[in-house]
Amino acid sequence: AQSVTQPDIHITVSEGASLELRCNYSYGATPYLFWYVQSPGQGLQLLLKYFSGDTLVQGIKGFEAEFKRSQSSFNLRKPSVHWSDAAEYFCAVLYSSASKIIFGSGTRLSIRP
Amino acid sequence: DTGVSQDPRHKITKRGQNVTFRCDPISEHNRLYWYRQTLGQGPEFLTYFQNEAQLEKSRLLSDRFSAERPKGSFSTLEIQRTEQGDSAMYLCASSTPDRGGNYGYTFGSGTRLTVV
Question: Which residue of A has its CA nearest to B95?
Answer without folding.
Answer: A100
